[in-house]
Specification:
Pfam families: DpnII-MboI
Number of strands: 6
Strand order of the largest sheet: 1-2-3-4-6-5
Order of helices and strands: HHHHHHHHHHHEEEHEHEE
Oligomer: single chain
Distance between the termini: 53 Å
Radius of gyration: 40 Å
Structural class: alpha/beta
Largest sheet: 6 strands, mixed
Number of helices: 13
Shape: globular
C-alpha cells in the first residue's frame, strides 16, 4: 500500500510540474506575440535586428517547451518570420497563436477538462432483399442432382468452410434423405447468401470442400535480448546542433549571474583582498573562471583588434572552437558608436574562421551607462544560415 501511495504522489507531482511548465510556455509565447506585433508597425527602428532576435527566441521556446525531438521543433527550428506586409505579419502571428492553442489543449488534457470526442455515427441498416431476389434464391434448378449424401455428411460435426468459388444451390436430392439410407435424419437448411448466386453449370460436379485441418504453425524464433546501444561520444554530441543550443544557454546563465558574483566577492571577511572588476582584463579573468564551472574545455584566442591601439585581447573558444565568447566592460568615454564598431570588428575576425559559427558578445555594464540595453541587443544580434551573432548586456 505504501508503494502504491508513493507512486500516485509521484505521478501527481509530475503532472503538476508539466502543467506549470506549460503555463510558463504560454506566457513566453504571448510575450513573443506582443514583440512581433510591436516591431511590425510602421516606423519601428532596427526592424531586421528585432525580427532576427524574435526568430531566435521562437526557436528556443519551442525547443524548451515541446522538446528537441518533437515534431513542433523539427517544423519551426529554421522558421523565418515574415513582416513585409500585413498578410505576412498576420501569417506569422497565426503561427504563434497555433502554438499557444496546442499548449492550452495539452494543459486541459492534463487537468482532465478536455471534452470527449463525439461518438461515431451509427451504421445505416441494410434494407431487406427484394421479393424477386428471395424467389431466385429459393427456386430450385432442374440440374442433374448429385448422389445423395450419407447421414454423416448431412450433419457435419463442425461448421463448413466456404469454398473459394460461389456456393452450390441446394437441390431436392440434398434436402430430402433417401429411404435406403438407414435411420431417418432431419433435413438441414443451408444458410442463404446475401447476394443471389450465379447459376452453376448443369453437368459440373460440386467442388470438394477444403480440408478443415489446421495448418502447422512454424516454430517460433528464439528471443534474443536486445543489446544496449553504447553511449554517444563527446565528438558526436559536439556535432549535434541541439547540443550547441545547450552550450549557448549555459553561457547566457553565466553572464546573467556575473554581476551577482562580483558583488559577493566584495563581501570578504576582515576586508581581505579580493578581485575588483575595473577593466576588460579583470572581466576576462573572472569570466574564464566561471565558464570552467560549466565547460570541461575552455580555449583561448589572443589577437590584436584594430580598436585597441596594439593592445591584445583574449576571447574564449567553446564547443570545439565553434563558439567564440568576447567580453567588454563599459567605461567613461566609451560611446555607443565605438561599442558597435568593436562588435563589428570582432564579428569580421571570427566570421572568417571556418569552424566558428557563433560569436557571443558579453557587455558588462555595472554602472548603467547604456541607456537602452534591450535596444542595443536587438540592434547587434543577427542570425544567418552559417553565422550567428548574439549580444547580451548585463546587468539591465
Amino acid at each position: 500500500m505504501a508503494r502504491a501511495r508513493a507512486s500516485d504522489n509521484a505521478r501527481s507531482r509530475s503532472k503538476a510540474v508539466q502543467i506549470d511548465e506549460i503555463g510558463r510556455g504560454i506566457e513566453q509565447f504571448q510575450d513573443l506575440l506582443a514583440s512581433i506585433e510591436d516591431f511590425s508597425r510602421e516606423g519601428f527602428p532596427y526592424r531586421d535586428a528585432a525580427r532576427a532576435k524574435a526568430e531566435l527566441q521562437l526557436r528556443e521556446c519551442v525547443r524548451r517547451i515541446f522538446g528537441e525531438r518533437s515534431p513542433e521543433f523539427q517544423t519551426y527550428r529554421n522558421h523565418k518570420l515574415r513582416i513585409s506586409n500585413k498578410a505576412e505579419t498576420a501569417q506569422s502571428i497565426t503561427v504563434i497563436k497555433e502554438l499557444i492553442q496546442n499548449l492550452e489543449d495539452k494543459k486541459l488534457e492534463l487537468q482532465g477538462l478536455k471534452p470527449a470526442a463525439p461518438d461515431p455515427p451509427a451504421a445505416t441498416p441494410q434494407p431487406p432483399p427484394t421479393p424477386a431476389v428471395v424467389h431466385a434464391q429459393t427456386q430450385p434448378t432442374p440440374a442433374t442432382a448429385s448422389p445423395a449424401p450419407s447421414p454423416v455428411q448431412a450433419i457435419p460435426s463442425s461448421p463448413p468452410v466456404a469454398p473459394s468459388g460461389p456456393p452450390p444451390v441446394p437441390t431436392p436430392a440434398m434436402a430430402q434423405p433417401t429411404a435406403a439410407a438407414g435411420p431417418s435424419v432431419h433435413p438441414v437448411s443451408l444458410p442463404q447468401p446475401d447476394a443471389p448466386p450465379s447459376e452453376p453449370q448443369p453437368s459440373a460436379a460440386h467442388p470438394a470442400p477444403p480440408s478443415l485441418e489446421k495448418p502447422a504453425e512454424p516454430p517460433a524464433a528464439p528471443i534474443t535480448p536486445a543489446t544496449p546501444s553504447p553511449p554517444a561520444s563527446s565528438e558526436s554530441r559536439v556535432a549535434d546542433p541541439l547540443y550547441k543550443e545547450d552550450s549557448l544557454e549555459l553561457i547566457r546563465k553565466v553572464c546573467l549571474r556575473f554581476h551577482a558574483v562580483t558583488r559577493q566577492l566584495r563581501l570578504r571577511k576582515d576586508y581581505r583582498t579580493t578581485l575588483e572588476v575595473e577593466d576588460d582584463y579583470d572581466l576576462q579573468d573572472l569570466l574564464c573562471a566561471l565558464l570552467r564551472v560549466e565547460f570541461d574545455e575552455v580555449g583561448f584566442d589572443e589577437w590584436i583588434p584594430p580598436y585597441t591601439d596594439g593592445a591584445p585581447r583574449t576571447a574564449f573558444l567553446l564547443h570545439r572552437d565553434q563558439i567564440a565568447v568576447v567580453a567588454k566592460k563599459t567605461r567613461p568615454g566609451l560611446t555607443m558608436k565605438e561599442l558597435v564598431d568593436q562588435v563589428a570588428a570582432d564579428s569580421a575576425h571570427y566570421g572568417a574562421r571556418e569552424r566558428c559559427t557563433t560569436l557571443f558578445c558579453f557587455i558588462y555594464d555595472p554602472e548603467g551607462r547604456i541607456g537602452s540595453p534591450k535596444r542595443l541587443e536587438t540592434d547587434l544580434t543577427s542570425v544567418s544560415d552559417r553565422y550567428m551573432i548574439e549580444v547580451l548586456v548585463a546587468p539591465k
